[in-house]
Amino acid sequence: MYSFSRLGDQQHRKRESQTTPADVRPTPEPTGESSASTTVHIIDEHDFALLLPNRPGELISDAESDGVAFCTPESADAGCSRRVSDGFIRAAAVTTADDGSYIQVTGCLDVSKSSLDASDSGGQFDVRFPNGAQCTFGGYGASFIQLVEPAANRFCMRCCTQHGDQINCNSHQDRAGCQAAIPGTYAFPALGVTCEE
């Protein structure tokens, strides 16, 4: 069972403005042809897909070249050939920008319901890795970033509408972690679930 909430962009702006200045070097170009196996989406808190390792125990950073899309169990996407286990997503929240420039999903995981390495500090997927990666919100070539941090039981993904959007989908914060790279909801007190630091 996981929690769902939809929030406006307003409450995250204050936190974003308190961080260090963004590295706004250009977004790297996408690699490879678009592929259904590396296409992610965010419809709502019940229906989204994340890029994850396809091999048991593979580190997130090692899977950046061969990760594949896994949908939530309740996803209505008929094209989803892989789904995460029930209970893997403990809590999730979806946020959309007031101006429509991005949509994001943030939340907490139960890594014991997966084949992920629980000691893995995590890594990032984006338009470069794996080949053909894209988010349906912006389409092929539009900026998106996704981090998975198994050791912290945390995940985050933001999909932007534009190519090269380093303001909203900054691909150069791959070592910063979810809470810095994609400010959002990581505590769900009603469920007694948190993955905040």
Structural notes for this entry:
By secondary structure, the protein is mainly β. The protein has 2 helices and 13 strands, in the order βαββββββββββαββ. The chain is globular. The N terminus is likely disordered.
How do the SSEs run, as a string of H and E? EHEEEEEEEEEEHEE
**Average pLDDT figure:** 84
How many helices? 2
Q: What class do helices, strands and sheet pairing give?
A: mainly beta
The spatial strand order of the largest sheet comes to 1-6-7-11-10-8
Distance from first to last alpha carbon: 22 Å
Task: Please indicate the percent range of residues in DSSP E strands (runs of 2 or more).
Answer: 25-35%
Task: List unreliable stretches of 5+ residues.
Answer: 1-20
What gyration radius follows from the Cα positions, in whole Å? 15 Å
Based on Cα principal axes, name the global outline.
Answer: globular
Approximate helicity band = under 10%
Q: Biggest β-sheet: count, sense, barrel? A: 6 strands, mixed
Tell me how many strands there are: 13
Oligomeric state of shown chains = single chain
